[in-house]
C-alpha cells in the first residue's frame, strides 16, 4: 500500500463533525447502543446452572481469568455471551492460516475481488459457528455437574448450555459485523475493548481502597505502579504508530496526450506488524499446561505449569519461555499478513520502484530484510511490555491490577488509535462531500 501525504483533521474539526454531521453522529449512536446491548447480555444467566457453586469452584483458575479478559467477566458469571467474540476471532485466525496454505482460498482473496472476500467472510462465519459449538460442548461437559436440578437428564442440561452459548456467540458476531458496517468500524476490536474497560472500575476501586489504608509505603507503591502504567501507555502509542517509510518512486507515464511526472511517495511498514496477537498466542500457550493439569491431575503437567507461572520457583524460566514464544509468534504472524514477494510484484505492476533497488527479486529480498529487522524490534518491545507489569506487581506488591497487564494495555491503546483514525476518515469524507456540494 502506497501512502501519500494528507492533512489530518484537527481535534476541533473532529468533534464538530461528531456533533453536527448526521451521518457520523448516527454511526456513533448505533455503535454505543450495540455495545451497551452486548454488555447487558453478559449478565443474562445460562439456564439450568447453579452459578454460585460454579463460581466457587473456579476461583484462582488462570484460564478463566484469560477468558474473562475478552468476555468482560461473562465467563466466570456464566452469561449467555460468555464466549463473546472469541469464536469469531479464532475462526478469523484459522482462515488466515488456511488462506496462506490453500491455493483455492488464496485465489479467492487475491483474484476474485469483492465477491471472493464475501465468500471468505461467509466461510469464516461457518467456521466460527463450528468453533462456538465445540467450545460450548466443552463448557457444557464442565458445568453439567453444577445443574440446578440434579434429577434432570445430563443430556438436556448440556443441550441447553450448548444452545445458549452458541446462539449468544453468533449474536455477538452479528453485532460486531453490524458495528463494522453501520457503526464506526472495527466491530470485533471494539467488543474486546469494551469488555476490558468494564473490568477497569473494579481494579481502580480496589487500588484506591488499598491506597486509603493509611500506610504511606503502600501509597508510594501505588503511585509508582500507576506512573509505570502511564509510561507504558505512552511507549505503546509510539511503537504502535512507529513505521519505517521506504521511499517509492513512480515512473513517468503517458495517458493519451497527457504526460504524468515522476511521483515520490513511501511504503509504510509498521514496527509492530502483529499488534497484540503474538502476546495472546504466547499467553494461551503458557496457560494451556495449567488448564490441562486441573482436569488431568497429571503430576508432570502440574510441575510444568508450576514452572511456567509468574510466581513459580524459577521466574527466569517463565520469563525466558514467554519471551521466546512472543518472538516466535511475532515472526509467524508477520509472515501471514505481509508477503514481500507480493509487495514487490504489486510495485512492479504499478510502475513503482525503490530507489537503488532493482525491481523483482531484489526488491522482495530488500523488503524481507527490512521486515525481519522491524519484526525483531517489535518482538523485543512486546516482550518488555509483557514482562514489565508482572515484575512491577511483584516489586510493588500491589495485586489489584493483576490480570490487567500487557495484553489489556496493548488492546486498549491499539483499538483506541484505530477507532480515532476511523473517525478521522469519516470526517475527511464529510469534508470532501462538503466541497462537492459547493
From TrEMBL:
Topology of the protein relative to the lipid bilayer: Multi-pass membrane protein
Domain of life where this protein originates: Bacteria
Predominant location category: membrane
Keyword Transport belongs to the record: yes
Record-annotated membrane-spanning stretches: 28-49, 69-89, 126-143, 155-175, 187-205, 217-239, 275-296, 316-338, 374-392, 398-417
Keywords: Cell inner membrane, Cell membrane, Membrane, Protein transport, Thylakoid, Translocation, Transmembrane, Transmembrane helix, Transport
Protein location: Cell inner membrane; Cellular thylakoid membrane; Membrane
Pfam families assigned: SecY
Subunit structure of this chain's protein: Component of the Sec protein translocase complex. Heterotrimer consisting of SecY, SecE and SecG subunits. The heterotrimers can form oligomers, although 1 heterotrimer is thought to be able to translocate proteins. Interacts with the ribosome. Interacts with SecDF, and other proteins may be involved. Interacts with SecA.
Protein function: The central subunit of the protein translocation channel SecYEG. Consists of two halves formed by TMs 1-5 and 6-10. These two domains form a lateral gate at the front which open onto the bilayer between TMs 2 and 7, and are clamped together by SecE at the back. The channel is closed by both a pore ring composed of hydrophobic SecY resides and a short helix (helix 2A) on the extracellular side of the membrane which forms a plug. The plug probably moves laterally to allow the channel to open. The ring and the pore may move independently.
Family to which this protein belongs: Belongs to the SecY/SEC61-alpha family.
Protein name: Protein translocase subunit SecY
Amino acid at each position: 500500500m502506497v501512502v501519500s501525504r494528507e492533512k489530518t483533521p484537527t481535534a476541533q474539526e473532529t468533534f464538530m463533525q461528531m456533533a453536527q454531521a448526521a451521518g457520523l453522529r448516527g454511526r456513533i449512536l448505533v455503535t454505543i447502543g450495540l455495545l451497551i446491548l452486548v454488555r447487558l447480555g453478559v449478565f443474562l444467566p445460562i439456564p439450568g446452572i447453579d452459578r454460585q457453586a460454579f463460581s466457587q469452584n473456579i476461583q484462582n483458575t488462570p484460564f478463566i481469568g484469560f477468558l474473562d479478559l475478552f468476555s468482560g467477566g461473562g465467563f466466570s458469571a456464566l452469561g449467555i455471551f460468555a464466549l463473546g467474540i472469541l469464536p469469531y476471532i479464532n475462526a478469523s485466525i484459522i482462515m488466515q492460516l488456511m488462506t496462506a496454505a490453500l491455493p483455492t482460498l488464496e485465489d479467492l482473496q487475491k483474484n476474485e475481488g469483492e465477491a471472493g472476500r464475501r465468500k471468505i467472510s461467509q466461510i469464516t462465519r461457518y467456521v466460527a459457528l463450528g468453533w462456538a459449538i465445540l467450545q460450548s460442548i466443552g463448557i457444557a461437559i464442565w458445568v453439567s455437574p453444577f445443574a440446578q436440578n440434579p434429577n434432570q437428564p445430563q443430556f438436556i442440561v448440556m443441550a441447553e448450555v450448548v444452545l445458549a452459548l452458541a446462539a449468544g456467540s453468533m449474536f455477538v458476531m452479528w453485532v460486531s459485523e453490524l458495528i463494522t458496517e453501520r457503526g464506526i468500524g472495527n466491530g470485533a476490536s471494539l467488543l474486546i475493548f469494551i469488555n476490558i474497560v468494564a473490568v477497569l472500575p473494579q481494579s481502580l476501586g480496589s487500588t484506591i481502597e488499598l491506597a486509603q489504608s493509611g500506610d504511606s509505603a503502600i501509597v508510594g507503591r501505588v503511585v509508582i505502579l500507576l506512573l509505570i502504567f502511564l509510561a507504558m501507555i505512552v511507549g505503546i502509542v509510539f511503537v504502535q504508530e512507529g513505521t519505517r517509510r521506504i521511499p517509492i518512486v513512480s515512473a513517468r507515464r503517458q495517458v493519451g496526450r497527457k504526460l504524468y511526472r515522476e511521483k515520490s511517495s513511501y511504503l509504510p511498514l509498521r514496527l509492530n506488524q502483529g499488534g497484540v496477537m503474538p502476546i495472546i498466542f504466547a499467553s494461551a500457550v503458557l496457560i494451556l499446561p495449567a488448564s490441562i493439569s486441573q482436569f488431568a491431575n497429571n503430576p508432570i503437567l502440574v510441575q510444568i505449569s508450576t514452572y511456567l507461572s509468574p510466581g513459580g520457583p524459577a521466574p527466569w524460566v517463565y520469563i525466558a519461555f514467554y519471551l521466546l514464544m512472543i518472538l516466535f509468534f511475532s515472526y509467524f504472524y508477520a509472515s501471514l499478513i505481509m508477503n514481500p514477494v507480493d509487495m514487490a510484484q504489486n510495485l512492479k505492476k504499478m510502475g513503482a520502484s525503490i530507489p537503488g533497488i532493482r525491481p523483482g527479486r531484489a526488491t522482495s529480498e530488500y523488503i524481507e530484510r527490512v521486515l525481519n529487522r522491524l519484526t525483531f524490534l517489535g518482538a523485543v518491545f512486546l516482550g518488555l511490555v509483557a514482562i514489565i507489569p508482572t515484575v512491577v506487581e511483584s516489586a510493588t506488591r500491589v495485586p489489584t491490577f493483576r490480570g490487567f497487564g500487557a495484553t489489556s494495555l496493548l488492546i486498549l491503546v491499539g483499538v483506541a488509535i484505530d477507532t480515532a483514525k476511523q473517525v478521522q476518515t469519516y470526517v475527511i469524507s464529510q469534508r470532501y462531500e462538503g466541497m462537492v456540494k459547493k
